[in-house]
């Protein structure tokens, strides 16, 4: 009986009572679309599509990035912007993902910064692939005349 009790304690210690976490750094790739709300004039109405993967250190590696909107004299051209950033993710044993995002786009002397502590999704722990990803946060643009503003954003992962 004593051996059974010891084995149960060891099994519980190894299992972590079901609260284990998974690092999901390289799993969040795919195509993401962002819609930014707020701002004024040429520093408003931003939306973009980004395709990226996440390295083991959380650094974003972009395969594609394109603004979907362009306002005459706007702060950013549709193409040619240079994005960078980090996405730090963890998932619990049920596959629920949480994380943070830091995302920067630089073009033509203007800098767009997105930050979030609200990253969600579901991790398939077998394939290490995230689905249903959503990111909500704040953005700010700084630079030339008319290109200083901020607001909120929503980024959604395409299926």
Give a verbal description of the structure.
With 159 residues, the chain is mostly beta strands. The protein is built from 1 helix and 10 strands, in the order αββββββββββ. β4 and β5 form a beta hairpin. The termini are far apart. Mean pLDDT is 79; it is low at 1-26.
Q: Compute the average pLDDT.
A: 79
Task: Report the span from N to C terminus.
Answer: 52 Å
Number of strands: 10
CATH superfamily membership: Avidin-like
CATH class: Mainly Beta
Radius of gyration: 20 Å
Percentage beta strand: over 45%
User: How much helicity do the residues have?
Assistant: under 10%
Number of domains: 1
Low-pLDDT parts are 1-26
SSE order in H/E notation?
Answer: HEEEEEEEEEE
Structural class: mainly beta
CATH second-level architecture: Beta Barrel
Shape: elongated
Biggest β-sheet: count, sense, barrel?
A: 10 strands, antiparallel
CATH topology: Lipocalin
